[in-house]
């Protein structure tokens, strides 16, 4: 039976959504096209009508996952406009987010995989990382003329690294300590910046 253009477009979007979650759970090389398409309720044959290659899908799914992650950051920040960074830290450096294999941060789940992929996948990650940095820059910047970019990079590196390490160990206590130490380090840095600002 022939699929309408509208249905084909909907199927394509569904495959991208499903792939964005399954890639985060299994890695780019940890799941094949047959299982990806099965996860979307479609046959493997339908893949080639929608995508040029698996790498094409990897790039699109990465972009989708990073857009979703940025929206989560914005939503968390909007719930606490007085302390948007604190709100994002609370959700990102939580045990709940650590356990979100399919819906968690794609940089944590796929960052090392992305480093081994082609330029299209890396471009998707770069766009998403720049979005993260833009959000963080608005929250960590201050009124004293300092460039917030370096601070934003340090905060992002700390947050991503903490979740990666917390997922990599069996010891639950150690896992939580990575998350807690990262949150405390970022908050201490912010407090020190505020103190310097009030002293000037």
TrEMBL record:
Coiled coil: none annotated. One of its GO terms (molecular function) is DNA binding. SUPFAM superfamilies: Homeodomain-like, Tetracyclin repressor-like, C-terminal domain. Keywords: DNA-binding, Transcription, Transcription regulation. Pfam families: TetR_N. The keyword Transferase does not apply. Signal peptide: none annotated. Residues 9-69 form the HTH tetR-type domain. It comes from the Bacteria. Residues 32-51 bind DNA. PANTHER family: TRANSCRIPTIONAL REGULATORY PROTEIN (PTHR47506). This is TetR/AcrR family transcriptional regulator. It comes from Mesorhizobium hawassense. The lineage of its organism: Bacteria, Pseudomonadati, Pseudomonadota, Alphaproteobacteria, Hyphomicrobiales.
